[in-house]
Design goal:
Blueprint lengths: L3 E6 L3 H16 L3 E2 L8 E6 L4 H20 L4 E6 H6 L2 H5 L5 E3 L7 H11 L3 E3 L20 E5 L1 E2 L10 H5 L3 E2 L2 H13 L4 E5 L7 E2 L2 E2 H9 L6 E5 L8 H9 L6 E3 L7 H7 L5 H14 L4 E8 L6 H14 L3 E6 L12 H4 L3 H24 L5 E9 L5 E6 L4 E5 L8 E9 L4 E5 L3
Parallel strand pairs: 1-2, 1-3, 3-4, 4-5, 5-6, 7-10, 10-13, 14-15, 15-16, 19-21
Antiparallel strand pairs: 8-9, 11-12, 17-18, 17-20, 18-19, 20-21
Helix pairs in contact: 8-9, 12-14
The protein binds 5'-deoxyadenosine.
The site of 5'-deoxyadenosine (5AD) has 12 residues, from strand 15.
């Protein structure tokens, strides 16, 4: 009988994609997937280290999995991904039932690491950052038959002072463009029509004389590709050439997630974001001139060390000026070893102040998003049907602008493009009804 695995993933889209990679490596190594951790010989938890809260959640979950292991001795538990990379062997000291700690650059050898843990009764740690690991030739086990994540870049060469990612993922590595294009063509041959190019600062992609706009155009021109998205771009690498590629290539979706982090120049400077508020707003104007209907979302941190009320007002002001379709908002979380932790002693924002700001920011973001979405009710849009919705009999579909639309329909519509009328909105998502096209 073959050995069995269970993989669960926390965190960003890159991590979700890594989850598919881990499953692919295990499947190639002769493992079969089971539908619950209780039945698995190997349980891998693919983790996120971006904020303290994310790590606490994982530690809670790993403690829960210890019960599974006690009920089924011999089960191996591995903690993988960014938290593994950050904590290394300290994780095993904190949670003795963890058998393996495996960083992102070691996934190719998962089967060997598991064998090693089985032989030695745990204690396996591989958190080497390998500049030579290019992730090529690994079969991913993809969850969706409709849309595919394509990592084109790993690691990060920016050094934002709040961010742990350069430590957990290493420096920027870009994939060979021909390998990216070949992979997409193969998936298109299997019927997938939407592709999401992934990278920590995806638009800083560069390989020989290929840059990101060139790669994006090449992907968009592959015959079976109907939609291309990418995430997340860094504002500094948002060039006229990229905007032109987006505007000119029909398959590139009119949508962008463009993290701003703060609307205050003082704070942006201390975050080492390397742009000013005006420069960011200038990029947004450039995008909107070329692609008037573009949907924009962002990430914002409140309570960064030294952020005062005026800085925060500048952030609110920027949100009012840009009018985002959506925003992910976070309270600053100090990450050990990042430069911002050294600013904290002088300038720590009290927790209740940061929490108050977060709540005010969320209220503003929601108000604007709801206003914008309400104005779209009644429109006819094309959606790609993705999957069965979590609740009820509805299907979940998405517009090219990345808006979620719930529609009544049949299982066999999954993967199809359809015309729907937007009939209502919760403020964040839509309901819709299919119409004849
Ligand atoms: N504290 C709070 N939020 C953070 N992010 C990254 N690091 C931190 C941190 N230390 C947020 C940023 C980033 C998103 C993925 O997570 O907004 O864009």
């Amino acid at each position: 009988m073959s050995k069995t695995y269970w993989v669960e993933t926390y965190g960003c889209q890159m991590n979700l994609s890594d989850g598919e990679l881990m499953e692919g490596v295990l499947a190639s190594g002769g493992y079969t997937q089971v539908s619950r951790p209780e039945d698995a010989d190997v349980i891998l938890v693919n983790t996120c280290a971006i904020r303290e809260h994310a790590e606490q959640r994982v530690l809670g979950r790993v403690a829960e999995l210890n019960r599974v292991k006690r009920a089924r001795p011999g089960t191996l538990i591995g903690v993988c991904g960014c938290m593994a990379q950050r904590l290394g062997a300290r994780l095993i000291e904190r949670a003795e039932h963890v058998d393996m700690v495996i960083g992102p650059d070691a996934y190719r050898s998962l089967p060997q690491l598991i064998d090693q843990a089985a032989q030695n009764g745990g204690g396996v740690v591989d958190i080497e950052l390998r500049s030579s690991e290019n992730y090529e030739g690994l079969e991913l086990r993809r969850r969706s038959q409709v849309s595919a994540w394509i990592p084109i870049q790993r690691g990060c060469d920016y050094r934002c002072t709040f961010c742990i990612v350069p430590r957990t993922r290493g420096s920027e590595k870009n994939r060979v463009p021909e390998a990216v294009l070949r992979e997409i063509e193969e998936l298109a041959g299997e019927g997938i029509t939407e592709f999401v190019l992934l990278g920590q600062t995806v638009n800083s992609y560069r390989y020989d004389d290929w840059d990101f706009p060139r790669l994006l155009r090449a992907v968009a021109r592959l015959p079976a590709v109907r939609r291309v998205r990418f995430t997340s771009p860094h504002p500094n690498d948002l060039t006229r050439e990229l905007v032109d590629a987006m505007a000119e290539e029909d398959a590139v979706c009119p949508q962008m997630h463009l993290p701003v982090q703060s609307g205050s120049d003082r704070v942006l400077k201390r975050m080492a974001r390397r742009y000013t508020r005006e420069e960011y707003i200038g990029k947004v104007s450039m995008l909107r001139e070329a692609i008037p209907n573009i949907a924009l979302s962002t990430d914002i941190i409140v309570g960064f060390p030294g952020e005062d009320e005026r800085d925060f007002e500048s952030t609110l002001d920027l949100v009012r000026a840009v009018r985002y379709d959506d925003a992910f908002t976070f309270r600053y979380s100090p990450r050990e070893g990042t430069p911002s932790t050294r600013m904290q002693e002088d300038w720590c924002v009290p927790e209740h102040v940061a929490q108050g700001r977060l709540e005010r920011l969320i209220a503003l973001v929601r108000e604007i998003a709801a206003e914008k979405n309400l104005a779209e009710v009644g429109n006819l849009v094309e959606v790609l049907v993705e999957k069965r919705a979590r609740r009820g009999e509805l299907l979940q579909a998405r517009t090219d602008r990345y808006k979620v639309v719930l529609i009544p329909g049949l299982q066999e519509w999954i993967g199809r493009y359809m015309k729907v009328a937007l009939t209502g909105t919760s403020g964040a998502t839509f309901t819709g009804f299919p119409v004849e096209s």
